[in-house]
Amino acid sequence: MSARAAKTAKKPLRKTGRPPAARAPVADGQAAGWREALEASRGEGFGWSRAFGHRPVLLDETLEALAVRPGGLYVDATLGGGGHARAILGRLGPGGRLLGLDADGEPLEWARAWGGGDPRLRLERLNFAALGAFLEKSGLGPADGLLADLGLNSRQLGTAGRGFSFALDGPLDMRLDQGGGPTAAEVLGGWGEEALAEAFWRLGEERGARRLARLVAERRAAGPIGGTAELAALAEEALGRRGGRIHPATRMFMALRLAVNREIESLEAFLAGARGCLAAGGRLAVISFHSLEDRLVKVALRDEGSWRLLRRKAVKPSPGEIAANPRARSARLRAAEAV
Ligand SMILES: C[S@@+](CC[C@H](N)C(=O)[O-])C[C@H]1O[C@@H](n2cnc3c(N)ncnc32)[C@H](O)[C@@H]1O
């Protein structure tokens, strides 16, 4: 984590109560067979996005914030299941364009299935930290709107083989981009006990960070930790059941995922470059699910020389949306206009 993120990080948990819970996983296989499901659900509102297994959050609020102009250039920096992207496309006229990015290959494969024939849609496998450089190199020009809906899509979370979920036994991978970079197993095996404790605390806001890191260090001395189920059991052993609403492994898994993918660093780079990606009057919308990320967005948008806030406070999902989609509960949308 950079010095800026560390400064922005929430200090003691006592001050502000519970950190947000990670989104609950879906059962493995729930999102399987998406090609068939896509075919079956064409044209049925957002039924098609259920085929992938992800439901867009704060959709109406995001579209309102982006104020899509039919002839504009828009960037969805986090395609995922394509719920937001498809809604943006639906508001674009024949002259409009949408650039869709994801660091993970599967959302792009999915997007080619639902939108590949649309000449207004361009798809790129790219970390959004590199968006500024990409826009410059590609000559696409500054955008009229830019969306980042941070974190994981439900399909990633619900696929045991990706290793994101403590509820499903799988390998300790956790990489968004499986093409390279260290896995969660390598982080757990290679980082010092102090560094692990720091990550569990700073990124996961885990109060038992030291206890957890100590037990990880003890266990790995006897051999590598086998998989997500073994790691989840270790968290239970270190922290106890607590009787709380969330599993004791929740915060550790979130911290590991953020560390493996350097997600805070990517968000910082994205926020630093976002103004340069937009034309004057263009809109930025960021949805975060983690208080550390939300604070980084809030601080970045305070820069009055670059941004005019659309609303002072973050937009939260309605009780109706949370009831229909419990994963939306910790979502926060912040949006601003480029000045
Ligand atoms: C919450 S999902 C987006 C869901 C999407 N808005 C929808 O309606 O279906 C987040 C997506 O962002 C991708 N992602 C996360 N960090 C990224 C990064 N730094 N660069 C590009 N994509 C990223 C993940 O792979 C995931 O597919």
- Helix fraction, binned, reads 40-55%
**Unreliably modeled segments:** 10-32
Radius of gyration: 20 Å
Count of discrete alpha- or pi-helical segments spanning 4 or more residues: 17
Rounded mean pLDDT score: 88
Class from helix and strand fractions:
alpha/beta
The strand count comes to 7
Strand content: 5-15%
Q: Which CATH-level-2 architecture?
A: 3-Layer(aba) Sandwich
Give the termini distance in whole angstroms.
29 Å
The quaternary structure here is: single chain
CATH class: Alpha Beta
Largest sheet: 7 strands, mixed
Q: Which ligands accompany this protein? A: S-adenosylmethionine
Secondary-structure element pattern, one letter each: HHHHHEHEHEHEHHHHHHHEHEHE
Query: How many domains in all?
Result: 1
Shape: globular
